[in-house]
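Amino Acid Chain and Its Fold in Token Form
===========================================
What this section holds: a protein sequence and its matching fold, both as plain text.
Structure line: whole-number tokens from a learned vocabulary of local backbone shapes, matched to residues.
Purpose: to set a sequence beside its fold so the mapping can be learned.
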Amino acid sequence: MALEPDASTASSTNDNNGENGSGSSSSSSGKAIVSSSNSNNNYSGGGVVPKDNSIAAESSKENICVNGVGGGRVSKSHGDGGWQNNDDTEVAAYTNDLLPTSLTPTHYDIHLRPDIESGNVPGSVMIRATVNSTTQDIVLHAAATLSISSVTVRSSSDAALIASVTNKDDDISYDAHLEMATVRLPVALAAGTNVGIAVAFVGKLGDGMNGLYRCKYRNRAGDPSSMLVTQFQAKCARMVFPCWDEPAIKARFTLSLTVPEPHTALSNMPVVDTVPLEGGKLKTVYFAQTPVMSTYLLAIVSGELDYVEGISYGGPLCASGDLNANGERRRQPVVCRIYTAPADIDKVGFSLETAVRVLELLAAMFDYEYPLPKLDLVAIPELEAGGMENWGLVLFRTVRLFITARTSLWIRQKAVYVIAHELSHQWFGNLVTMSWWDELWLNEGFATWIGIHVTDKLYPEWRRWDHFAIEDRQAALSADSLRSSHPIQVKIKGSADIDQVFDSITYYKGCSLIRMLSAHLGIEAFMAGVRAYLVAHEYGTATTADLWHALEQASGEDVATLMCSWTTKIGYPVVSVDADFAAGRLVLRQGRYLHSGMPSADEDCVVWWVPLGMISADIDNGRRSRAVMHQRQETVDIPRNVRWIKLNHANAGLYRVCYSAEALQRLAQAMERGELQTGDVVGILNDTVALVISGYVRTSALLDLLGSFVKAAGDSYVVWQIVGAFLENLNQTWIERARPGICAEIVRLARSMFGPKAAALGWAHRTDDGPLVARLRSISIPRAGWAGDPLVVAQACQLFDELYSHPEESDRRPFHHDFTASVLEIAVRSGPRSNHARVCEMYENSQRWNLSEDHRMAALGAMASASANDLKLATLEYAMSDKVLPQDLNIVIGYMVAAAATDSSNRQVLWQWFTANYQRIVARLGESSALLGHIVGAVIGCFSTNEMADCIEAWFGDKRTAAFDRMLPQSLEFVRVRAAWYNRDSADVEQWLSLSACDVLPSN
């Protein structure tokens, strides 16, 4: 599942909306075909699927047994309540939401007949299961909305009836909290036997974006309608059918689905038969049997859809004599399709080409074929995450697949990354699955690394790892600098806690550690270990220890020892560098880094393995040293009088570096001389910003160095992005308490830096501009607009007037589409009041102005940038209306939070509205929605006083916060960190602004 940005990052001055550019690719793997698909077209390529709901020739490797039982649970403890019973007696109690192990399912045969109008979902499931220990109880996961009407148990050997119970008896009971149903049989099932369990039930279509739910879209006639969509990760299969809903309890699935005749019905496997019903009004669609997999990967989509099709050569290897131009064996074809609502079919060509290329690249990297006969990607208008990796049926938010010539460069890059992330899961997560949710990082951390690695392979000119250093890596370092953080291998407190660990620690710290380890081992040894890991655990489950073992076998290094503290402990180190250049000596000390300052002795008890990655212009021609740090303090020899030394080359390691004053000054001089690569400049700047916030370094010291960083940046957008974000954060922290003139000086400083840059780059793309210059232009203009640069504001308002007034000329837009988001936001914030209504009109009628999907979202966000408080409130109310999808409330909140950096009234308006409408928000998003936690974090995070932190904490005191009880203390801790920053450095900043601000860059 792809992690969507928090609400706090949604603004054209950040990377989630605004930058644009073009990028194209051509596939050599087959011509795309557009098709209407209401007939549930069968697939060609990648093998023949029979119509008896079975795979013709099952690979022997799909029959892997876990713990001696096909698809069963691994023999390990899961959190506090995991246990394994190894004798023939029934276990009487269970905890931590795990089911008893008396039965293990091997196959589900499911039929569902959802009624879109009534919301009822009658269904049946035949479960083939092995009896591991004698039991009279069948305990399954079943959500409170699922009602079991009857259960019949027969012997698998001769179909003899063993027992039958109905809901009229008292033999079916429910535990709503644990989401379990217990069926008490009149006789015991004997250990060692195999049974068939037939269950009839009725469920409900979900109201939120989980389980099986109705998703708004426009049908073939262009009318508002509802498609059916599933989201089962992490624990929502139980909302649709009774099952063993744990990732380690794998089984095969055979599905049939009764739907309206015009619908295209999709699932993980191809359609093998379709039977018309009720005079052609309905049809039952039968799908082939899946390989062994977890319940959370089963998926359904049904609606009036069209598709484009391509061929990817990512299947099994061809015969030994069938070679490509490089002398390598070719792979068999896999049919790739992207499904979407008919009106949007022309928007997914780029995404199809990307999916085709990515699948081939992944099959080659893993040296393992894509295991299924087809791959479908579907654009879903209402989806909580950015993407969901269901095996063979991968779902995406529309903004992640609708990539056209008008789409911004950053959204294009994000689309490639998200597609690569989700497709990598087809191996890392689906083929091999984490044994329990405490190992989620194995799925998501690795998929994040692969997503960026593949994007960098396909588009090296994008410098995707440079961007990782300023966004994803920083998100991990920021979250893990809190006392309220959690280890990567996280203890799951209960089912309500599972969704909360889909966070920046799991994704981005996990990715950062994989990057650090792969850099240390070397990419060839690392990938050899990954390939061995996949083969060893295919169609089964694995743990972190299993991955370390495979990497140890491939590299010869003691990976488990090196990485133990990184995955099992909270936090990361800051390495302090005390350099004696004359003597040729570095004294290095490591200790835990906390945003709130120095840790206590109890908090600072871990000693990390730290790859130092030292570079210098005077050492080994600038190549990275492989020296590592194992102790709390170490001394390292360097050549005497070396000009400069830098640790953590290219940000490969997950730690901060705090240089002595002399060492930092020498690095500043090296930056100005152009002796450091962009990634290393980014590392120094990011670390210095963090050290300022935590009190290791005075804010004035960083302000003194801004000129050096800007000179080193040149046209590197990543450095400019950090500088702009720091000044915005500084202003947002100071704006609540500093006298008005101080914040005006901070904004003037930002204007003096970004105004001239925006003027020099201009509003028009030049033919020789590369993607990095395009990104820099798209950062400089909104930053200058945020700082009130009069030329940028005037130009943006003029361009908006031209755009709004001439929708018929949208193909000849008066500015490049890179700037659409910035133009909309500046026009609402700094233009006439009427621009708010105009942008709302553009959002509601985006086709009239030919807005791409990302710019339609930018129009919604821009409405939240209004200066007038009544318009802010009107926008928040609008976001709660039927005109805005529930998932997009996040965008409106994010823009309001971003605007709070210069508009001090925003945070109070937002907080008052949030507290007054909290129950409405919960009802709209769902009490367990991950989006609710993101919104809570964003609303809280815009404050910067201890008084407000206390007020917020008290307000939530009587609220049910189980869905965000990790996010809440983290957000409050951030508020108090910023309060401490202001208390410590307010006088320092005021003095610097009065004496030195004019020395950074000329005033604009």
Notes: The longest helix spans residues 967-995. The longest strand covers residues 120-131. The two ends are 45 Å apart (CA to CA).
